[in-house]
Design goal:
The chain has about 325 residues and is an alpha/beta fold. The chain has 11 helices and 14 strands. The chain has 2 domains: about 5-105, Enolase-like, N-terminal domain (Enolase-like, domain 1, 2-Layer Sandwich), CATH 3.30.390.10; about 120-320, Enolase-like C-terminal domain (TIM Barrel, Alpha-Beta Barrel). The strands form 3 sheets. The chain has an 8-stranded parallel sheet with strand order 5-6-7-8-9-10-11-12.
């Protein structure tokens, strides 16, 4: 069998500066899958973070990619959808294929994909879920990050958490993420206070699958679908319930499906947020192409790590820069 390229897939563990807590649990490190595709001396890389909430594990993602080894190495023009890969497995493969095409052509990803050349974008800094005092202290650690995302979604105390962060950072723009942790009654009870605190967006307040409760609810704060929106085909069912969709490449299955989701959202007059799982700059870099269309950008994953890739993305004063070609794309 002709071999056009060589596949290497591995698991890497990147420790976090501090435990990262959301309503569903605590992470102590970012465990990621890295795909390397080599052809004629050029190497393309992609990184993804499997999520157990979606039934994924590093072992399962590696196994899914390994099952496609012959096609990845032997097909002239392989694609993640063509191999029936989904989620994190598809993302690592799709981003590695794009990166390899860039390295072979000596072009940047936006030129390869026909997208606008990206520029630096403002990113959130996430404040993990904790006690109000600890969340306030965390918010104060990042004085040059003027857009903060507050993790919420506990049975009680969320309004106190928001008040503490607002008191600690009266200068900051605030959004929040309930990670499916509220009921529709809690949302109704909270939204007035959240508006008064100046929150600009609420991400995934209700569990995925309970979105119909939002159809008869008029929120004074824009609502963003995260767990309820994975791919472009999901958008139509969310119209009239959400104002934005959060595009994460680990959910869409890669950069190219992520761009398709952005197009679908815009076609339905929905705005875009670009998000991430915990990961290194290699995982964030492709998302910067989608971020050019976004109202909110949440690509702060490397800021939670003890260390990052070299070269990595440049984070300065709340903005993240375009990746160097040596990193990705």
């Amino acid at each position: 069998m002709t071999r056009y390229r060589t596949l290497e897939v591995s698991v890497e563990d990147w420790p976090l500066e501090q435990p990262f807590t959301i309503s569903r649990g605590v992470s102590h490190s970012a465990e990621v899958v890295v795909v390397r595709l080599t052809q004629d001396g050029a190497e393309g890389r992609g990184e993804s973070t499997p999520t157990d909430h979606y039934g994924e594990s590093c072992e399962g993602v590696v196994a899914a990619i390994e099952a496609c080894r012959d096609r990845l190495e032997g097909e002239e023009k392989p694609s993640a959808p063509g191999m029936d890969l989904r989620g994190a497995a598809a993302n690592a493969v799709d981003c590695a294929l794009v990166d390899l095409a860039c390295k072979q052509a000596g072009k940047r990803a936006w030129d390869i994909l026909g997208e606008p050349e990206p520029g630096p974008v403002q990113t959130t800094k996430t404040v993990p879920l904790d006690t109000p005092d600890k969340m306030a202290a965390d918010a104060r650690k990042w004085p040059t990050y003027n857009l903060l995302k507050i993790k919420l979604g506990m049975p009680d105390g969320d309004l106190g958490r928001v008040a503490a962060v607002r008191a600690a950072r009266p200068d900051a723009r605030l959004i929040c993420d309930a990670n499916e942790g509220w009921s529709i009654d809690q949302l109704r009870d909270y939204v007035g206070s959240l508006r008064d605190a100046g929150l600009e967006m609420i991400e995934q307040p209700l569990p995925a699958g309970q979105d119909d409760a939002l159809r008869d609810f008029t929120s004074p704060i824009p609502l963003c679908a995260d767990e309820s929106c994975h791919v472009a085909a999901d958008v139509e069912a969310l119209v009239g319930k959400y104002d934005l969709v959060n595009i994460k490449l680990d959910k869409t299955g890669g950069l190219r499906p992520g761009l398709e989701l952005a197009t679908a959202a815009r076609a339905h007059d929905m705005k875009i947020m670009v998000g991430c799982m915990l990961g290194t700059s290699l995982a964030m870099a492709p998302g910067l192409l989608v971020a050019q269309y976004a109202k909110f950008v949440d690509l702060d994953g490397p800021l939670a790590l003890v260390g990052d890739r070299n070269p990595g993305l440049s984070y300065r004063d709340g903005f993240v820069s375009v990746p160097d070609a040596a990193l990705w794309g």
